[in-house]
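Continuing from the previous page...

OK, I double-checked the sequence for GAF domain-containing protein against my notes and this is the correct one:
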Amino acid sequence: MDEVTEEEVEKFLDSNVGFAKQYYDLRYRAKVIADLLGAKEAAVDFSNYHPLSSVEESEIIFDLLRDFQENLQAEKCIFNVMKKLCFLLQADRMSLFMYRARNGIAELATRLFNVHKDAVLEECLVVPDSEIVFPLDMGVVGHVAHSKKLTNVPNTEEDEHFCDFVDTLTEYQTKNILASP
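Thanks. Re-ran it with the corrected sequence; updated structure tokens here:
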């Protein structure tokens, strides 16, 4: 059998774009994402990967939800989700502020802070005596908690709700924010 040249393969892939996309999506897409996230070698054989039916997708989502319900370490689950979101959104860092009412006064306090794709849970978990606390009428996080609406701040210098309180504490300059209730 003759050896296939690089030009022949390229010509075939160019004339069969649908096949090429399907092939690379099935064989390499998940592996590339796992490599970029710095994940350990997956126990999954990607050559056996196949498109999921809607029933299979539903089962996976149901199992994921069940895992969340059964896991007693909510912070660990949320931390892992935030790490992956940092990568997917290409965010420099993320933080989780939790709503609470102390002495009848509503406020937001940091629970996970400075989460990034390579972060370690113990370094990001905020202990009660180190919390950063915001009243609901202060900053973008306060505004988002009060309005209960997703907010995208492309430039913090131009946003009326932005407060540089945390930037001053951490010596970090926030340039943009995507905040969700």
